[in-house]
Amino acid sequence: MGICDRIRPLVLLLAGLIGASGVALAAAATHMGGALLGPASAMCLAHAPAMLALYAGHKLIRPATGAGLLMGIGTVLFAGDLALKQFYGTSLFPMAAPTGGVLMMIGWLVAALGAFVPLKAS
Question: Which positions carry the signal peptide feature in this UniProt record (predicted)?
């Protein structure tokens, strides 16, 4: 069992937690207001299904686990930073949201590279 096989369940766990967070952030944005909660929710609700697809398609997309982890970590940083700023007026750390955004973009690019990475021979 390789490292990707051991890490792969983390993609599913993160996808579920990020999806649930997206729904909660959308509800908070609707009921409490807050300009930062809508974008945080949107990123969660956009990336959770993508991560689920990468989890499910790991046999067809060779770099799926890495792409899913990058998207997940990026989404947690991005949405977490925005939510923390909205609720507490502070940041996770300087440049947390932009760092998360870059990680999400790299995750998408890694997924796209899957088109050029041959599948393992069975």
Answer: 1-26
